[in-house]
Each structure stands twice: as C-alpha cells, then as structure tokens.
C-alpha cells in the first residue's frame, strides 16, 4: 500500500480485552491515540480516546483492568510497525467519561506496558556474580521477574560484579546498575535503561551516537513544496510528500546553556572524595569540563562553552571543581572486601566504579537536559523512536552569519530524548511532538579577538572578566 499524503497512518488493530473475557473492537470508534516515549523512562505509556455509543464502560465493563492490543503503521513502511498485538498494553486507569451527546460519551483510558506492572508487583532478593549486561538480561527474561518477550537491546559491559540484591523492585535494581556500568567498547559510564516502541534498551549514550541519523529535518515555514516526488493532495495542491516528512512544523528552543544550573549540577566542574574507612584515608578525583571534554566520544568536536580565560588567575569556567562535591566510602584496604582473587591471585570480581563514573555521568546528563535542548513538531511515521539520532537544519535569523544561511550552532545532530506519537482521527494525521538535545557544536565558538566588526545597536564587543 503506497502512502497518499505525509502523516497518513493505518490502524490495523485496536482491541480492548476486558477482565470478564470479552473483546471489544474499537477501531471505528477512535478519536485519538497518544504514545509517550523517553530515554529517561523505563516504560512506555499512553492514552486513547474513543467515542462510546454502546456504554462500553458499563457493558464491558471497562474498569481499568483491561488489556489493549494495538497495531499502527505508516503505509509503505510495514516492516516498521508499532505492533503491540503479541505484547499487549495494560489499561490501568479510566481518565474521564465525558458526555458528548444524548447517546454517546467520550471515554479516555490510560495504558502502560505490562512489564511495569510486573515490576511493581515483584521484588528480587538474591545474589548475582556476572557482568552487568548479563545480570540485566537475566532479570528482564527471568519468568520470576519481568519475563518479557519483547526485543531486548543490551550493550556489553566490562568487569564481573558480585552483588547482592536486597529485596528491591527489578527496575530499581537495573536503574542502579546503569549508574555503575561501564561500556566494554567505550569504557564510558553513560548508560541508560529505557523502553521505546522498538523494545527495551540498556545501552550507553556512546552506543546511540554510533548509530546513523534517522533523517534530516529542516525548520521552515508552512507552504507547498514542489519537487521530483510531487503529487496532488485531496484539495488539488501540489506537494512533495518526501519533503513534507522532512519539514519541521513547529520549533522552539527549550534551553541554551543555563550556566548557573550547569555549575550547580556539576556539568562544568565537580569533585568526588573517596573515604577509606579501614585506613582512615581519602583520595579525590576531579572533573573539569574542558580538560575531560574529549575523554569519551561525542556528537561533535566543539564545546558549547568558550575556553577563554575569564579571571586574573587564568581560570576558565571549567576550573572550579568545588562547585559540586560527592563523598563515597570503601570499607577495607585495597578494596579486598569487594574484589575476590582466584587461584592465581588475580582479581576476578571487580568492585563498583563509582569513583570513575559518577562525575562524568552527572555531567553528561546535565549536558543533555540543560545544555542545548529543542522541541519540535514533525509529520509522524512509525520508524521514529526515543533514543535515536536526527539531523536538524535551523535557518539563521536576522543578519546572515559569515554568508551561511543556516545557524552554525543549532544546526547539527541531535539525540531524541522524549517524544509523543499523536494519531488524530479528526485530521487523519500522525504527528510527533519531540524533545531533542545536542551536547556539542559542529562549529567552534569564536575566541577573544575574533570579532571583526561591531554587533547590535550599541557598538562594540568587549572582553568581560568575572
């Protein structure tokens, strides 16, 4: 089936399975469907609004204890369906029942993944001796715990850990493991545990950065675009479907380097003090933004702050590691309580790597959340998910920068951190509302002395000291 217009979608299945054993096909009753994804959330969630002319809430009955099987696709992309027929959603809440007319009501239901309900009902009390990636895989597939049959994407981690789980929920334990995991390939501590419409993921940000971009999107005004693939829409207007998919319908900058927040959050500098309770000694490790900028792979090569000296002592904004301080302890000499030796007296089990990971991890997450973040609305298709890379083209505003029609800093690759799929039966269109972040620039920032002419209405650029 070929696509007729950008944003077209097809609902192949939408069935509510009630707790009494009956099934209700609501494909023809849909008003809207929303599905939420986030790199910082362990589970999918969503809502569905239907027109209820048969009093389903009473006759079903629908009580917030149902399953929802759902399959959505973009015509021509059948291999990239949003398919939750074998792994159904769980309806857990009736959000509202609004009277639409004398014989109909609008029924809005909230749903989530069954793994989240299993997690809330289950606790782990046992020990593990294995690599973190194998521990995570075991928990997700073990029938006593999560027992998922979804696609699971787990990045290999380094080291063998010996850990005891003290009666906690599976997802809480996995989230804690993510703070300690180090990538086997990149040695990076930036692990995420999340679910999107493609499956469940336990991977590092560097793993995401190594993927290809899903597409290039341009911020532009609405209007007909004509190209080689142009066709007529239902109103006779000539449009290029491929170009419509690449157009950003709405664009907003959420944050642009909140320096105060980035100082307090440890993005620009921090320190970890490790206290040895056995020997009554301590050691410290510092993180400095510019000194450690190239330690792990990034989207681009250039920092989002300038490395100019800003005080009489020659310090830049990344030289103040006392801005945020952490303290953690170890309990014996040479960490022999957490490292165990084999017959050859070699270390077999590795301790946690908090001293190596905590500073870089908090800085990276601050970069994603309060550095360069934008919100977009784009024409939807079922291939797009949180945790993917996209390329964004942003035109300049006002005077053209060095003859470049595109913004040299906001144009570049971004990671999709959050998104909402909206399938609206009123407009018959699929749209995606998303947030995306970049943690480095494609173009380096100008240094002191690079300004060649006055900017703005008041004349000159001056060098400031703080």
Task: Give a structural overview.
The protein is mainly beta and 466 residues long. 15% of the residues lie in helices and 37% in strands. The strands form five sheets. Strands 13-16-20-23-22-21 form a six-stranded mixed beta barrel. A three-stranded mixed beta sheet has the order 9-12-11. The termini are far apart. 30% of the residues are buried.
Task: Give me a quick take on this structure.
The protein is mainly beta. It contains eight helices and 23 strands.
CATH T-level fold name of the largest domain: Phage tail proteins - horseshoe like beta roll fold
Q: Sheet bearing the most strands, described? A: 6 strands, mixed, barrel
Strand content is: 35-45%
> What overall form do the CA principal axes indicate?
globular
- Output the CATH homologous superfamily of the largest domain: Baseplate protein-like domain - beta roll fold
């Amino acid at each position: 089936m070929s696509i007729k217009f950008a944003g077209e979608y097809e609902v192949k299945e939408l069935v509510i399975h009630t707790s009494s054993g009956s099934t209700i096909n609501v494909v023809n009753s849909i008003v809207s469907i929303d599905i939420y994804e986030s790199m910082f959330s362990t589970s999918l969630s969503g809502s569905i609004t239907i027109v209820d002319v048969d009093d389903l809430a009473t006759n079903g009955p629908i009580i917030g204890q149902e399953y929802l099987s759902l399959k959505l696709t973009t015509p021509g992309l059948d291999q990239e369906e949003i398919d939750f027929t074998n792994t159904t959603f769980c309806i857990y809440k009736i959000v509202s029942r609004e009277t639409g007319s004398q014989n109909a009501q609008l029924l809005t239901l909230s749903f989530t993944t069954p793994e989240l309900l299993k997690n809330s009902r289950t606790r782990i009390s046992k020990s593990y001796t294995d690599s973190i990636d194998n521990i995570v895989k075991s928990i997700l597939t073990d029938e006593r715990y999560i027992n998922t049959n979804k696609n699971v994407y787990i990045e290999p981690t380094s080291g063998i850990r010996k850990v005891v789980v003290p009666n906690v929920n599976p997802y809480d334990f996995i989230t804690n493991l993510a703070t300690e995991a180090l990538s086997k390939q990149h040695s990076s501590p930036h692990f995420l545990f999340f679910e999107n419409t493609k499956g469940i993921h336990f991977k590092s940000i560097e793993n995401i950065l190594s993927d290809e971009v899903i597409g290039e999107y341009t911020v532009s005004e609405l209007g007909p675009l004509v190209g080689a693939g142009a066709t007529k829409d239902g109103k006779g207007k000539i449009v290029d479907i491929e170009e419509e998919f690449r157009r950003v319908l709405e664009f907003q900058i959420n944050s642009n380097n909140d320096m105060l927040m980035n100082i307090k959050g440890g993005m620009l500098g921090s320190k970890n003090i490790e206290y040895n309770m056995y020997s009554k000694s301590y050691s410290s490790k510092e993180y400095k933004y510019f000194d450690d900028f190239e330690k792990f792979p990034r989207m681009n090569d250039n920092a989002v702050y300038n490395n100019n000296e800003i005080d009489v002592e020659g310090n830049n904004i990344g030289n103040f590691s006392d801005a945020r301080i952490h303290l953690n302890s170890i309990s014996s000499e040479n960490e022999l309580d957490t490292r165990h030796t084999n017959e050859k007296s070699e270390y077999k089990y590795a301790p946690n790597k908090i001293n190596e990971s905590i500073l870089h991890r908090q800085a990276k997450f601050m970069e994603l959340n309060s550095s360069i973040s934008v919100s977009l609305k784009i024409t939807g298709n079922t291939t797009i998910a949180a945790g993917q890379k996209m390329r964004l083209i942003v035109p300049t505003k006002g005077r053209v920068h060095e003859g470049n029609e595109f913004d040299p800093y906001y144009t570049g690759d971004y990671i999709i951190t959050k998104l909402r799929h909206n399938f609206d039966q009123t407009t018959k269109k699929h749209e995606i509302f998303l947030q995306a972040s970049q943690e480095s620039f494609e173009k380096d920032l100008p240094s002191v002395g690079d300004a060649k002419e006055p900017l703005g209405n008041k004349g000159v650029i001056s060098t400031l000291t703080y």
